[in-house]
Amino acid sequence: MHMDDLNVATKEFDENRRSGLMICGINWGSDPTEPQNYEDASFFSDRRVNNYEYRNRIIRWFSLWGHPLETSEVGAGAFERSVVQTNWWRSQSSNVNGMSIYDGCLKEWGNFEFHLETLPPRLIFFFSVQLLHALNASVCATAAQRLLGPLSPLRVVTHSKQSGEKP
């Protein structure tokens, strides 16, 4: 299986094929009439090819958490190559206003399940709490537990901005 068969915006590396860090959003947040181009795919934090506000915000969060990601190819190492970016849905839209994210995730479970089977992550960052709720829905739970292990008590971690801190 190669990355071009997957719904990912990162290049295939040994470090992200198995036991990597998966960043999972809802869908590709752009104009659906503009095709996604992944020919120049690289590691997630590479500013040359993945310089979008969504990605830049996540890069800042890693720094706040004490785990800065290199943004240049020269300094990139195994940690940067371990990150894979995907979305639960294959679709793209300018926004998800008026859409039921939970119902959409249940409908698109097969797409996300395929990604979990192909790139079994060690850690997943869901960038919507609705994704976590869908993962624990009865429709997804059996397959999710087969792929990710037994269900643990739900633990949601949030980070509040400090005064003057940029998101």
Keywords for this structure?
167 residues, globular, 3 strands, Uracil-DNA Glycosylase, subunit E, 3-stranded parallel β-sheet, 34% helix
Task: Outline the fold blueprint.
Blueprint: H1 14-17, E1 21-25, H2 53-64, H3 78-82, E2 83-87, H4 101-107, H5 109-118, E3 123-126, H6 129-135, H7 138-148
Parallel strand pairs: 1-2, 1-3
Helix pairs in contact: 4-6, 5-7
Structure description:
The protein is an alpha/beta fold and 167 residues long. It has a single domain, classed as Uracil-DNA Glycosylase, subunit E (3-Layer(aba) Sandwich), CATH 3.40.470. 34% of the residues lie in helices and 8% in strands. It is built from 7 helices and 3 strands. It has helices at 14-17, 53-64, 78-82, 101-107, 109-118, 129-135, 138-148, and strands at 21-25, 83-87, 123-126. The protein has a 3-stranded parallel sheet. The longest helix has 12 residues, at 53-64. The relative contact order is 0.20.
Quick structural overview:
This protein has 167 residues and is an alpha/beta fold. It has helices at residues 14-17, 53-64, 78-82, 101-107, 109-118, 129-135, 138-148, and strands at 21-25, 83-87, 123-126.
Output the CATH topology.
Uracil-DNA Glycosylase, subunit E
Strand content: 5-15%
Shape: globular
- How many E-type strands? 3
Strand order of the largest sheet: 2-1-3
Radius of gyration: 16 Å
pLDDT averaged residue by residue:
84
| N-to-C series of helices and strands | HEHHEHHEHH
Question: Would you identify the regions where 5 or more consecutive residues have pLDDT less than 50?
Answer: none
CATH C-level class: Alpha Beta
Number of domains: 1
